[in-house]
Amino acid sequence: MSLAVQSRDLTKEKPKALRREGFLPGEIYGPGQENIHVKVSLRDFEKVYQRAGSTDLVDLQIDGSTYNVLIHDVEQASGGQIISVNFLKVNMNKVVTLKIPFNFIGESELVAKGLGVLSTIADDVEIECLPSALVHSIDVDLSKLENFGDQITMADLKLPPNVKLLAGLGEVVVSMNEINIVVDAETPVVKDETVEPVPNTKQEVKK
User: Fold this and answer.
1) 3-state SS assignment for residue 81
2) Contact assessment for residue 151 and residue 175, using Cβ atoms and an 8 Å cutoff
3) C-alpha–C-alpha distance, residues 56 and 97, integer Å
4) DSSP assignment, residue 43?
5) What is the edge-to-edge ordering of all strands in the sheet holding 23-30?
6) Model pTM?
7) Domains of the chain (ranges plus CATH)?
8) What string of H, E and C letters represents the secondary structure of 52-95?
9) 72 with 52: CB under 8 angstroms?
10) Which of 51, 115, 122, 129 is the most exposed place for a label (fewest CB within 10 A)?
């Protein structure tokens, strides 16, 4: 996928002014090169970022040139709106190290029946590969968790060719646990100890 950006003049185009006009300030950076100051349409960026995330290569087009980049360092304000972004230029002939998120698929029968609960230990994993071998996510099939105590570890992951796992093979990704149902003790019956009034048996003495 591709994204067009424009060069930015730091002396004339301040971040706040750019945002008011619907642009994001940004930088293109990478090993052995000077930073390139850019601006990008917020609307265009959001469309690409929704698809690419931080793990898919993007063809960044600027001033007639195209760079292979990863979206990196997306800065957000307290309200969640994106206010700036950096693009990491990659060398297609050199390996990159990146964290790839897990995509949890399927459903355990124990969970479907309300008997088990999943304990997710890891949401992503660090890998190493050439940029051309990068993947958007790595699938983790939860249907394989058939019994209480079952685990899916890093060793169980199906990695694409030419992708090296940097985590320990024994590290747990997700495990299946039994739901502990807490039954309250029977509420004791409280006897009604209210004292009923004693009828007045005193007889009136006739004079």
Assistant:
1) coil
2) yes
3) 13
4) H
5) 2-4, 58-62, 65-76, 82-89, 23-30, 33-41, 6-7
6) 0.78
7) 2-89 (2.40.240.10), 96-178 (2.170.120.20)
8) HCCCCCEEEEECCEEEEEEEEEEEECCCCCEEEEEEEECCCCCC
9) no
10) 51
